[in-house]
C-alpha cells in the first residue's frame, strides 16, 4: 500500500475548503484531478473517506481519523523541509551536562550581537557526543575526546576539576581538597558523559564507584550524602542546588572543553564559534 503526500494534501484541501471545486483552485489542478486523487487514496487505504451530497462534502468516521493523521504528517514534512532548506540560519550547539559554564550567557549575548543572521540554540542531550551523532545539533560541547574519525574538534578552554559533595559532609568545611581526601569515598560516575573515572587516582588508592544516569540523578545521590562527584567547574555554575557544595581539587588535572563537529559537513559558523569561545575562556 503506497500513500503519497499529494493524496494527503488533496484530502486535507477538500475537507478544509468544503468542496472539490475550491480544493482544485487551492491545489492548482482541475476538479477532475482532485476526484481522481481522492479515489486513488481511498483505494490505497481500502476505506471511504468522504461523503458527497449535492450541498456538501463531509468526512466519514474513518475520514476524520485519516485527516487528523494527514495533518500531522504534512506538518512534519513542512518541518523537515524548513529544517533542510533554512540553510545555516540557525546554529545548534549541544551539551550533555553543562554548556560553557559562566561563559554561557556572555557567549549567547555576544553571538546575537556579532552574528544577528544566525540564531544560536543551546540543546541539552545526555549522550557521549552531546547530540551530534544523533543529529540534534551542528556543534557540541564535550569534555571527553571523541574517538571517532567522523568528528573533528578543537579545545576552546580548560576548566578546574571540582568535587561535589553534601553540605553535611565534614569535607565541606574545607576550602579545597586533594585526591587523597576522596579515596575512601564512593565516587558517582556517568560512564556515558561524565568527566571523571577512578583512573584519576593512583593505583591502590582509587575510590569505590557507583554509576548514575544523568545530572539530576547524580545531584540527588550526592545531596543524600551517599557519595561524592567529580566534575568540571561549569557544572557548579549551571547546577547550584541546596544541600550541595563544590570544592576545587588542587592536585586534579583540569578538564579540556572541546567544541566538536562533523568532519565532512561543518557548519559555516563553526570557526566563528571556536574563536569566540576560545576568547571567552582566555578572558579576552
Number of discrete helical segments: 8
Q: Please give the domain count.
A: 3
Side-by-side strand order of the widest sheet: 4-3-5-12-6
Under CATH, the topology of the largest domain can be stated as D-Maltodextrin-Binding Protein, domain 2
Q: What fraction of the residues are assigned to beta strands by DSSP?
A: 15-25%
Radius of gyration using CA atoms only:
28 Å
Overall mean pLDDT score? 91
The CA-CA distance between the termini, in Å, is 61 Å
Q: What would you call the shape?
A: elongated
* Backbone structural class: alpha/beta
CATH class of the largest domain: Alpha Beta
Summarize the structure.
The protein is an alpha/beta fold and 284 residues long. The chain has helices spanning 5-17, 20-27, 31-45, 61-85, 104-114, 215-224, 233-238, 270-282; strands spanning 50-52, 57-59, 90-95, 119-124, 139-142, 151-159, 161-166, 186-189, 208-211, 228-232, 244-248, 255-262. It contains 8 helices and 12 strands.
Relevant terms:
284 residues, alpha/beta, Arc Repressor Mutant, subunit A, D-Maltodextrin-Binding Protein, domain 2, 5-stranded mixed sheet, 8 helices, 36% helix
Describe it for me?
Helix 1 (5-17) packs across helix 3 (31-45), helix 2 (20-27) packs across helix 3 (31-45) and helix 5 (104-114) packs across helix 8. The protein has three domains: 5-85, Orthogonal Bundle (Arc Repressor Mutant, subunit A); 90-158 and 256-282, Periplasmic binding protein-like II (D-Maltodextrin-Binding Protein, domain 2); 161-253, D-Maltodextrin-Binding Protein, domain 2. It has 284 residues and is α/β, with parallel strands linked by helices. A hairpin with a 4-residue loop joins strand 1 (50-52) and strand 2. It has eight helices and twelve strands.
